[in-house]
Amino acid sequence: MKELIKAMDSSNSRNLSRGLDTVLSHIGRNSPEYAGFVNMPVFRGSTILAQSLEEWDLRKSETNPMASYGRFGSPLTKAFESAIAELEGGYQSLVFPSGLSACTHALIGLLKAGDHLLISDSVYGPTRNFAEQVLRRMNIEVEFFNPTNLSDLSVKLKDSTRVIYVESPGSMTFEIQDIPAIAEIAHSINAFVVMDNTWATPLYFRPFEHGVDISIHAATKYLIGHSDGLLGIATANERAWPILQASAHVFGETAGPDDIFLAMRGLRTLSVRMERHWKNGLQLAQWLQSHKAVAQVLHPALPENPGFKLWQRDFLGASGLFGVILHPMSKNQLSTLFKEFKIFGIGLSWGGFESLALLADPLPRLDDSNGFKLGHLIRLHAGLEGAQDLIGDFSQALDAALAVG
Ligand SMILES: *Cc1c(COP(=O)(O)O)cnc(C)c1O
To answer: Which residue among 200, 232, 266 closes a domain?
Structure first.
């Protein structure tokens, strides 16, 4: 079955989603083993009993730590991790209690005192905070590089550089990074490339085909997809896997069984949802581009975006998350805009079925020389509602805002 689907995908990677649609419906299920039920049950528990001393010794084996204690996961954990490893095209995956936990543990597993870490300047804010507040305290040298300037990266590279941490597109500003080129630079000095791949999901960016060593998803976002759980997952290639695995288990990291169940369920509809997020986001972005209140739209799948060519080369689709910079407004106007939204919610996170708007300025970054227009940055998540309704809602809220002083 797996072979058949792989053969269908064959050479043209843009056809991959066709095979993956089918994979998503069947991956990680084993109905005969669970009384015929379509979905694997939720396992709750800490103690796992053995029938004999011999079985107990066998359970504790290195190759199958999961069989001995609940903290190492359940059959459902294992099924979800295997599913993500396969979807990502990596070697093995590990769940974490949140997306941020996956980011921080991947970093702490790879780094030791005296190492140098290069992080893309448009990285997810809390990952940035962790590097600045915790890693620096541990004598790890943390430096940020301009996400779209490879020579800035090359200049900052050192013999002690152990990790280059990327996120493409970047949080809030959505710059696409040249991951294959960055991986080449990193691997020339044996450094690891860690990528936060949350935006694209495993469907729209294939990290291991582009040289990434560890790929991370906040499963909280599109994988769970309904704003009703928190979960992270990291996937490693063979080289990075032992390091990633050690970084989690010794810290006692694990994830709740219900959240893993929700993520597994989310996989079944992921491709259908992503198509709608992509379409809604792009339609909204195109409409915003022509509005007089808009200074700039930050969406990598718009041909006018500086990252468009790289997006077209490396990505297989776009999610529903992007940014818009509005021309400078009064505080009263901004407040009116957000007050008048009837469909867009105001809140953190994204990847659920619902649309969200978040005021994102000022940006916590060092280098803002990438040609961003002056104004107010709003991060938008296009949910699964009707595209025309989203445009209508934004339009009426903007009209109301422009009408006040
Ligand atoms: C939300 C997010 C995270 C963190 O996920 P949590 O589950 O909220 O901890 C990490 N990276 C990116 C890009 C995110 O958007």
So the answer is: 266
